[in-house]
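Students often ask why inverse folding is considered easier than folding. One informal answer: many sequences map to the same fold, so there is more than one right answer. In these notes we will look at a single instance of the problem. The structure comes first.
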């Protein structure tokens, strides 16, 4: 794997609720240091980020974050506003409460409606694996596939647990290439990132993207 190939698997992320505008601007600068897949930032900063990057990096943001239980119209509005502001990728939190209640059709309808908003927008369904049984994880993955989403994503990073190797392997094994897997939550170093990729993840969501790249370059003797 080359440095560019590793960077292309990483969504550089800043979703800390205490992040300042200065922090966001630093992340914008950091996103240009390596060819990251995207820069994922809070919805309120999408327009600022789009104006600053001017297409040099894909912009991701979140919808229904972090609990997923906003109403369907609110999520749809939030998604459309993000796209209009310049977002290329949407990481959408599944309505975990509805899902745990067995209300699978409304969950499917919600994410499918967001997917249909703009066909060239990459949509990732966050299923928050720490709250689900293995059977539920597989079912949530199937709903993500049926909705037309491009990724099923493990975690928000704000739940009681983040991505695990076992969960990534379970999702990737069930997906069988029908949908990509994004691992997110608690990925703070190179070894963990590589383990997630080896388990079947196509994307890594992390606020430690610069650190991971520096570790990789050092290991390769490039730094």
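Output (designed amino acids):
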């Amino acid at each position: 794997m080359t440095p560019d190939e590793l960077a292309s698997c990483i969504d550089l992320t800043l979703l800390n609720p205490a992040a300042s505008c200065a922090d966001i601007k630093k992340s914008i600068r950091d996103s240009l240091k390596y060819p990251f897949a995207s820069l994922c930032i809070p919805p309120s900063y999408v327009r600022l980020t789009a104006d600053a990057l001017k297409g040099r990096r894909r912009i991701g943001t979140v919808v229904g974050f972090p609990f997923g239980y906003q109403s369907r119209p609110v999520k749809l509005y939030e998604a459309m506003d993000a796209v209009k502001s310049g977002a290329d990728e949407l990481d959408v939190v599944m309505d975990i409460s509805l899902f745990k209640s067995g209300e699978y059709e409304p969950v499917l309808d919600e994410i499918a409606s967001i997917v249909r908003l703009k066909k060239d927008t990459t949509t990732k369904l966050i299923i928050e694996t720490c709250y689900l049984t293995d059977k539920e994880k597989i079912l949530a993955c199937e709903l993500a596939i049926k909705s037309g989403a491009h990724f099923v994503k493990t975690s928000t990073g704000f739940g009681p647990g983040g991505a695990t190797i076992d969960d990534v392997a379970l999702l990737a094994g069930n997906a069988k290439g029908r949908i990509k897997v994004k691992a997110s939550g608690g990925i703070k170093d190179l070894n963990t990132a590589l383990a997630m990729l080896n388990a079947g993840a196509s994307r890594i969501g992390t606020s430690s993207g610069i650190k991971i790249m520096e570790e990789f370059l050092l290991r390769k003797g490039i730094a």
